[in-house]
Specification:
alpha/beta; 9 strands; Rossmann fold
C-alpha cells in the first residue's frame, strides 16, 4: 500500500511540473526603455533660456518597437520578444526632455509652444540605435545628430554629431538600454556645455 502511495505521489508531482511548465511561456515578451538613472547631478552651466525639444526623427530601419541587433555590417535583425516600451522617436524625446530638465541649465524645457515662449529649438535625428554583437563581446551603438536653432531667426546655433559604440559588461540584452542611456546623457551634457560657451 505504501509503495502504491509513493508511486501515486510521484506521478502527481511529475504531472504538476509538466502542467506548470505548460503554463509558463518559455519566451515571454520583455519591454525596455531608456532612462536617466537617479544620482548626483553633475554641475552644469546656467543658460537660463527656454528650450523646445522637437519630435525626434528615427531612421526607418530603427523606427520599430522591436529592438535591433546587428551581427555584421551587412546583417541587421529584429528581436522577436524584446521590445521598446515606446517607439524610439517618442522614447528618445521623453528621455532627452528629462535629461535637459535636470541640473537647472535651462529656465524651462518644453515640447509644445503652448508651454512657453522658446528661445531655442532642438532638432534630433537618430541614425542608429542598436545592439552590435561580436563573438568576443556585445556593444550598444547610438549614432545621432542634434541641431539647435534660434527660435526667432531660425538660424543654426549649434550642431553636434556623434557615433558611439560602447562595450556591454555582459552579453545580456538588458544591458543595452543602460549603456544607450549613459551615452545619450553624456552627449547631451556636451551639447549643453557647447551651447553655454557659444552664448558667452
Amino acid at each position: 500500500m505504501k509503495r502504491f502511495y509513493f508511486i501515486l505521489t510521484g506521478f502527481c508531482f511529475i504531472l504538476f511540473l509538466i502542467l506548470l511548465q505548460g503554463c509558463t511561456p518559455s519566451h515571454g515578451k520583455r519591454y525596455f526603455q531608456l532612462s536617466m538613472l537617479p544620482g548626483e547631478n553633475m554641475p552644469v552651466p546656467r543658460i537660463g533660456k527656454i528650450m523646445l525639444v522637437q519630435p525626434v526623427e528615427v531612421d526607418a530601419a530603427y523606427d520599430d518597437y522591436r529592438l535591433v541587433y546587428r551581427l555584421s555590417s551587412y546583417e541587421l535583425n529584429y528581436y522577436s520578444y524584446e521590445f521598446w516600451i515606446k517607439k524610439p522617436g517618442t522614447m528618445m524625446r521623453d528621455v532627452m526632455v528629462d535629461c535637459l530638465s535636470r541640473g537647472g541649465a535651462f529656465e524651462k524645457v518644453i515640447v509644445l509652444l503652448s508651454e512657453g515662449d522658446p528661445d531655442f529649438l532642438m532638432d534630433s535625428t537618430v541614425d542608429v540605435i542598436e545592439e552590435y554583437d561580436r563573438p568576443d563581446a556585445w556593444f550598444a551603438r547610438l549614432k545621432m545628430s542634434i541641431k539647435i536653432r534660434d527660435f526667432k531667426s531660425n538660424e543654426p546655433v549649434l550642431v553636434h554629431q556623434f557615433d558611439r559604440k560602447e562595450k556591454l559588461t555582459e552579453k545580456k540584452i538588458e544591458k543595452v538600454p543602460v549603456v544607450l542611456s549613459q551615452i545619450l546623457e553624456e552627449e547631451l551634457a556636451k551639447v549643453v556645455a557647447q551651447l553655454a560657451e557659444k552664448l558667452k
